Amino acid sequence: MSNQPGSAFTKFTQPSTRHRAVSRRLFRLVRRPLFWALPVFLLVFFGLDLLFPLRTSVPYAPLITAQDGTTLHAFLSRDDKWRMYAELTEITPIVRKTILFKEDKYFYYHAGFNPVAMIRAAGRNLLTGRRTSGASTITMQTVRLLEPRERTYGSKLLELFRALQLELHFSKDEILQLYLNLIPYGSNIEGLKAASLLYFGKPPTLLSLAELTTLTIIPNRPSSLRLGINNAYIMQERNRWLARFRSAGLFDEAAIADALNEPLTARRRAAPQQAPHLARRLRTAYPDTPIIRSTLRPAAQATAEQLVYNYVNRVRALNIHNAAVLVVDNRTLDVVAYIGSADYANTFDGGQVDGVRAVRSPGSALKPLLYALAFDEGLITPKTKLNDVPTNFGGYEPDNYDRRFNGSVTAEFALANSLNIPAVALLKDIGTPTFISMMRKAGFSTIQKQAKDLGLSMILGGCGVTLEEMTRLYTGFANEGVVGALALTSPIVGPAPLSKEERTGPGRRSVRLTKSFSPEAAYLVTHTLTQITRPDLPNNFDNSYHLPRIAWKTGTSYGRRDAWSIGYNRNFTIGVWVGNFSGAGVAELSGANTATPLLFQLFNALDYNSARGWFKPPKGLAMRRICPETGDTPGEFCTNPVTDYCIMGVSRFRRCQHRRAVSTNAAGTISYCTYCLPDQHEAIVRRSYPNLTPDLMAFYRSRHIPFETVPPHNPACERVFGDTQSGPQIVSLNDGSEYFINPRQPVEMELSCLAANDVQTVFWYLNDKLYQKASPGEGVFFRPRPGVLTVSCADDKGRHSNVRVVIRSE
């Protein structure tokens, strides 16, 4: 095959002249130093960027805002500056126009520095022999604000490098935002938002063109242009810049004219200081977050603060110095008002104590939870009869608030009137461990440390709770038994120049919902607590207060140290505590007359004439006929049944036995048992007698209230009953107790018992020796001696019971 030039073989095996030329040019280009300049620069820049990162973390002054964004409370930053974080949404188009026109017209077009402006500035400086122009862009000024240093050419080069870093890692809007957060305004005020709030009393979004222009020109000369001091001079400078804006056509003529005519009334204002207790609580919870959005509503918070302040001023004459209030939106569980004390600045009365989180005795305010649990356990319905009589619960003898007893009452009457004996009896039936477990389920964290030491007295205030826990509990009654964690914060905003996680912030806490009791039990409690015929209304309330339609419960702690009143409707739950943080008791302090008037004022101010209606009975509730004497389903001797609520499938079904049949002679003077029934030719009459409990009969006897008693048993009957289970119940002395006596001053001790309706006589034995016979309601006294003592009590049917005690000398 031919290998001559021009042949086909030569065309495919030898490089063309054009290819050889391209190769020679590339070879020469690679050998030039400028070819490697850009890659080397980028490699060095990124290496330095990794080795010497730009630190943009700035200690901002924490702001606590309301639900609508209004600033409620501001704190100094860690370096004692009023440096407030402005969000991107607060940088309005007017702000951008004025700032960029004055400082950096080509901000959005350069990479951190403006080479044209730098060349021009360098030329001017060389021609004049002095520094007349710096040509710093907003990005470079931001670097200088982040890292202040001496103004030298070396510093300028470092600023250029830092500016490129800033442009690399952040968007233009974020850089502008950071700049506006750092510009100085004199003294310890930094940033546009801080100046706006502290000089004009409004956020940047509400500033007028004249006000924005004023804040635009001050950072260049913060020492000479001092707002509130040199306002006349500042106004001249402002108008000069407004004229420039007009010449540049930055704003329309009408806006410029209005701005020129606007007076300058700026002055230094105090930082916002609303909701101080919640503000400090949130700042502690989110220490590095510049803006913490609370759930508070400004109008509700301000109204509640003023009402509490005025109310405490009125009751201070009674030596009552403080109050705390928590207002919760039942639909969202947002806390809309939070007042920890009447006056935070009052250090004499402990104004800085947060009464919302202070552990106090709840008095009777826990009773609704107990009754809800009893409803769900099927133990009671609203008209179930409970005994409100003097009762000894293993040595614990509670008393009612008014030191009176009511005998047999319905469960709803006992709850509405806050009777103590029925509540303690219910807690005894349910068991304190079950009730404590329910409290934990409802969010009572303070109960954890106390649980092992709690007994029956806890239902009357013998435990520690907080106003926050109590208010959260009552939101469950307004939300069909569902209790959830109260929300104090909305989504939280962090500074833009931080990581994504920090920018997002911890956000709003997830609201944990717990089904603490059934909707049926919640409704039954609400239905009861809505009644207005009850003793815990304020004195002469109808002449002094407009009673809102709410369900509420009061509580007064032992020693009258704490007064509680917690109420709710469809919209809000409001918890009120009144007392002294010192723990000093006050004779006039009570939940009804001290806390409830403030509760009514708050509801009337925050939710007057609520339009959401009232609670409706849930589907699980039904009506049934019951005997009014016991609340049980009608039995043989129930002649006038009434209706009552019951929880289907839960409420117990028990036949009423409030009366029992007894066989007697025709005169009704002798009763017979089945063993001693007379012959058929003698007249036997079947009569009914009250089947009263022993404690109720003892109460009737002590109050001289007449009641039917079973006639004495046939004396000719030789049967001995011998049933120790139904024998007399010894209520004094207490089984297993130790009693200490002084031998030099001997005293007598009382023996008492509760016996059945058919008992006429009881017999007392001391260490198996007959001591005395007496009637069932009669107290027997004896003089004890040291040692082990067995006390026995037998009735005239042969039934008996024993207790064992120890008598010791002091």
UniProtKB/TrEMBL annotation:
GO MF annotation terms: carboxypeptidase activity; penicillin binding; peptidoglycan glycosyltransferase activity
Pathway: Cell wall biogenesis; peptidoglycan biosynthesis
Gene3D superfamilies: Biosynthetic peptidoglycan transglycosylase-like, DD-peptidase/beta-lactamase superfamily
Enzyme class: transferase
PLD phosphodiesterase domain mapped to chain residues: 317-348
Entry's transmembrane regions: 34-54
Keyword vocabulary terms for this entry: Carboxypeptidase, Glycosyltransferase, Hydrolase, Membrane, Multifunctional enzyme, Protease, Transferase, Transmembrane, Transmembrane helix
Gene Ontology cellular component annotations, sorted alphabetically: outer membrane-bounded periplasmic space
EC number(s) stated in the UniProt entry for this protein: 2.4.99.28
GO biological process: peptidoglycan biosynthetic process; phosphorus metabolic process; proteolysis
PANTHER family: BINDING PROTEIN TRANSPEPTIDASE, PUTATIVE-RELATED, PENICILLIN-BINDING PROTEIN 1C
Entry protein name: peptidoglycan glycosyltransferase
